[in-house]
């Protein structure tokens, strides 16, 4: 993977799911991420949504916590720590590539086909983030620079220059900087 390649919502689903899980956990008001939110996040894989039930809330919440630690390590430029944390997850649920036919097309999956839902997504998320780190693209994973925002993101821009989780945070930060300059 190079900075010039586009991320694919299906192939790279693990990193997109990881970002959404971490963000939901950081914004959550309750002790677990609700199953309705998990279903929205996992919609990239309808089979996962079908298997999802309330009993998965705690497992996905713990996965979100673990992935949050990975993002914090990356954001703090502690890549060795991020790699160690990912290696722990990969050791627990190693990626086992296999081909699966979906909608008449062969797709490469990176998890054992018979894993329960939370371990399966742990393998997928950890493998996708590990692939980004291994490609030297850790800077594409970040935490929003906006004041009072702790959301994480995957930078899909060509020049890897993103600093904010959303246009709204970017606009608020720019407006605040403009007001500070005007006040000086």
What would you call the shape? Answer: globular
Biggest pleated-sheet summary: 2 strands, antiparallel
Residue share in helices? Answer: 40-55%
Read across the widest sheet, the strand sequence of neighbours is 1-2
Uncertain segments are: none
Features:
two-stranded antiparallel ribbon; 7 helices; globular; 52% helix; 184 residues; 4 strands; mainly alpha; single chain; Jann2411-like fold
What can you tell me about this protein's structure?
The chain has 7 helices and 4 strands, in the order αααααββαββα. The longest helix has 19 residues. The chain is globular, with a radius of gyration of 17 Å. It has a single domain, classed as Orthogonal Bundle (Jann2411-like fold). With 184 residues, it is mainly α. The strands form 2 sheets. It has a two-stranded antiparallel sheet with strand order 1-2. Strands 3-4 form a two-stranded antiparallel sheet. A hairpin with an 8-residue loop joins strand 3 and strand 4. Helix 4 packs antiparallel against helix 5 and helix 5 runs antiparallel to helix 6.
